[in-house]
Design goal:
Elements lengths: L12 E6 L5 E6 L6 H14 L7 E3 L3 H16 L1
Parallel strand pairs: 1-3
Antiparallel strand pairs: 1-2
Length: 79
């Protein structure tokens, strides 16, 4: 069963809140989550917030760093 249209998250994506001081919302394709650099970001989130984060997954890094990881993982997934 797909996600409801009202929640704004298309099927195959995971919403994430990224940033330390200024937070920004991202929709990340699930296929990128297996990338080793992305796994490191998820480990950072687990260490800072634990596994029981209520609501949207939060990643404790700067948005520029997050964008770099997403860009690199996207390029790797396309090759």
């Amino acid at each position: 069963m797909g996600r409801r249209k009202e929640d704004g998250v298309p099927k195959g994506y995971v919403p994430m809140i990224v940033g330390k001081e200024k937070e920004e919302r991202f929709l990340v394709p699930t296929k990128l989550l297996k990338d080793p650099f992305f796994a490191a970001l998820l480990k950072m989130a687990e260490q800072e917030f634990g596994y029981a984060q209520p609501g949207v997954l939060r990643i404790p890094c700067e948005t520029e760093q997050f964008r770099s990881v997403v860009d690199a993982a996207t390029k790797k997934a396309k090759s």
